Amino acid sequence: MDFVFPICLANFAVLFMVAAVGVALPAMQQDLGGSAVELSWVAGAYTLALAMVFVPVARVVDIWGYRRLFRLALLGLATTGAILTVSPNLPFVIAVRVVQAVAGATANTASLAMLAVGVDSHRRGAAMGWLTAALYAGLALGPLAGGVLVELWGWRSIFAVSVPLVVAAWAFSARIPGEWRPRAGQGLDVLGAVLCAGAVAAWLLALAAVDQPQRLGQLLVTAVLLSWWFVRRMTHSPDPLVDVAAVASNRILVFSLVATAINYASTFCVGFLVSIVAQAVRGLSPTQAGMLLAVPPVVQTLGSPWVGRMADRLPAPWIASAGMAVGAVSLALLAQGAASLSLLGLTGVLGLQGLGFALFASPNMTVILGAVEPRAYALASSLTGAMRTMGMAASMAGIAVAFRAFLGEAPVHAAAPEALVGSMATVLGGAAFLSVLGVGLSLGRVRWRRG
Length: 451
Fold this sequence. Notes:
The chain folds into 3 domains: 177 residues, MFS general substrate transporter like domains (Growth Hormone, Chain: A, Up-down Bundle), CATH 1.20.1250.20; 50 residues; 209 residues, Growth Hormone, Chain: A (Up-down Bundle). 81% of the residues lie in helices and 0% in strands. The protein is built from 17 helices and no strands.
């Protein structure tokens, strides 16, 4: 309990804040002004910064200590949350959100590393299950509670409510015994950290520009060059951020990381697409659409502790692979009938998707942590976070391509229902196919018996 409760509370608070901000964006722009581009960067800058710092943060956590950096990150989250309640304009919000992303990446990386090293291996699956439940409870409650908070007290109340949760997690974290510093006394390769952040940023921006050929080409060249420079630097640095050769030779770790990216690439688009079709085609109100979209994270929250305990008794790769298979079925059903299914049927399919994600998430993380030595727990956690973010970006890039093909330059609210349904079916059909490939990749981690 000393380990699990403050970690779960902290991660719940962070995901609650992230999910609630999306609901608050219109009110934020009405209050602070600013352009649509600036408003998009309130969420975009957080995601980009999060992905850029995941791997460098792992090295810092290893050097300074898991518990110390976890508690320092919580203070950073609480401070930035309090500052955001008095933000004067959107550029200020964006700048503070970047700092908040660094604190969020640090807290997440240190959390997983502490759970891995501080909880017995036979109880690790259960601990990961509770952490996953906390994460998706934050995602489920964020939009619902965020809407109520914005309506009653304005968008600043989202951050005001989140701060006490983070402070409580910080207070309880004082009870975590011991400290872990697997790389104490070693140095940080600053150039390597800059190259890593730059390469990740270039890849993410390239995904966002997938429907802009000229800009895409420039970004891809930049991403490839920075990635090559980073790998070369890692092979010559005395204190590399990543032992590239060791990671590349670890088949289970590589397959698990790619499976993570595939799973998020195939599922992250669902909420966005279902929200649009539910309102623009089916005629549901924003509140009704929000309740519908809460179904997957609610199922994930309820199912993850049970799945985590299951992963302590059964082979985790099998469970994670089954989760991807369930997810593929739900995506195929959504691709065929999101606009025609009854409301009850649509709710059931979204619940099936939530079950698939619950079956995948914590067992997959258990496999990842089991594939590395204890001194590499923080790095494995950070690589997982980076692959998760890349998968999300790829998912949204797929939506951009489909919308451009089916809708052209027409705004979503003015598009023909047939075009919206067609674009959704295309994206979700492709996501289902990608999930099937992911199942095969995930099964590659299974140790098959030879008769």
